[in-house]
Amino acid sequence: MGNASAGMGWAVLINRGGKLTIIINQTNVNNTIPLAIENGTIKARKMKYKKEDAHCCPSIKVAKKYKLIGSQLKEVK
Question: How many CB atoms lie within 10 A of CB 4?
């Protein structure tokens, strides 16, 4: 991730008849990298900092899953 982790969110788009449309712009997924979409669930990895980590480089990797519920991405188990 390095200091390129300044991104503050994800845009979720849907393909409607060949036209991409943004359906949400989610901002509560800081330091979270989307990895795959399976069965409507986004698998992701959230990066967290240990006390001794440099500001550029979080070293803890936490598996996360998100699903589009209504107009928001919600974390699911």
Answer: 7
Mean pLDDT of the chain: 87
Domain hosting residue 71, numbered range: 2-76
Q: Tens digit of pLDDT for each residue in 16-41?
A: 899 999 988 888 788 898 999 999 99
* 72-76: long-range contacts, CB 8 A cutoff, minimum separation 24: 72/24, 72/26, 73/10, 73/12, 73/24, 73/26, 73/29, 73/42, 76/41
Per-residue pLDDT for 5 more than 90?
Answer: no
- Please tell me the total count of domains within the chain: 1
